[in-house]
Amino acid sequence: MKESVSVQFLVQPHFSLLAFAAAADALTTANLVLEQERFTLSTVSLDEAPVISDLSITIKADYQAASNEAEPFSADILIVCGGYRCELQPNAQLTRFLANVDKSGALIGGLWNGVIALAHADLMTGFACTLHRHDHDYARTQFPDLLLRSDSMVLDRTRLSAAGPNGSFELMLLLIQRLHGGDTVNAVRHILRADGDQVPENNTPAHEIAPAPTPVRLQRALQLMRNNLDEPLSRDDMAAHLGVSKRALERMFQQHFNTSPARYYMELRLNRAHQMLLQSGESITSIADNCGFVSGAHFSRSFTKHFGCSPSSARKATSRLLDHR
């Protein structure tokens, strides 16, 4: 394993300071927990001018892309920091810089709407991603083939993305998990979230982030699903447990999550499988069985359709962090 992983944040005018700080704080706290500098952090801007954040706090970046265009990119990870008021139109200088980063083999990601810059640079083809929901319409219009998901964070092979501050924090915890294990992640959580509730496992479909209060009967349905991932309940069984008709069950999910119970259940199982692939050493066959898939082939087809890559590719790409560069 590499002694230290270098992470560089590209700050754009009006970038979300909170999303940036959440990511940087997680990595810096991991260094404190490990009592070693296992993550080195730096910032880069497109030119020499100080960059003003969304909170009107100015940052003078450590490096300037304009003065290093001829040099190979040397960091292990580059993360483009976006924000609510960040410019979404293509920027030729930024596109050239990102192309140079991609040539280096570095992992590339975006916070808030940072992946839009990657999409403009044609670096998101075939990769799943997420971004702030405020920018979904723009992204779908400009990039019809973009594999856009509504999750708080997405790690797809060599691309990382988070939709906001919470997703930024969780994305960095996933990197820490892969490099230094669950105990380090738990310690970071304890330090930074000592005044808050425990964060639930990241296997909840994005549909569950609903604007309206969730009815008690629907909460029971969700809990039934979570408790039966290894042996999924049929729609008939689910309706019987809840004391509702199958039609009422379908209507409840459509109204609150804009999806069917079957599709929601499948996403729940796939997200759990994805989490196990990244965070455990279990075989793919065992993971498929634990998440209720009747065969490895069925699991592989479903996983590939949802995430855009096979289970083995997802595991290999993330494991690449362990000996990156």
In short:
By secondary structure, the chain is an alpha/beta fold. Helix content is 46%, strand content 14%.
Structure report:
Helix 1 runs parallel beside helix 5. It is globular, with a radius of gyration of 20 Å. Helix 1 links the parallel strand 1 and strand 2. It starts with a strand and ends in a 6-residue tail after the last helix. It contains 12 helices and 11 strands. It has 2 domains: 176 residues, Rossmann fold (3-Layer(aba) Sandwich), CATH 3.40.50; 120 residues, Arc Repressor Mutant, subunit A, CATH 1.10.10. The chain is 46% helix and 14% strand. The strands form 3 sheets. A 7-stranded mixed beta sheet has the order 5-2-1-6-7-11-10. The protein has a two-stranded antiparallel ribbon with strand order 3-4. The chain has a two-stranded parallel sheet with strand order 8-9. About 4% of the residues have low confidence.
Itemize the secondary structure elements and their pairings:
Blueprint lengths: L4 E7 L5 H18 L4 E7 L5 E2 L5 E2 L3 E2 L12 E5 L10 H13 L2 E5 L3 H6 L7 E3 L5 H7 L4 E3 L3 E4 L2 E4 L2 H28 L23 H12 L7 H8 L3 H12 L3 H19 L4 H7 L5 H12 L3 H9 L6
Parallel strand pairs: 1-2, 1-6, 2-5, 6-7, 7-11, 8-9
Antiparallel strand pairs: 3-4, 10-11
Helix pairs in contact: 1-5
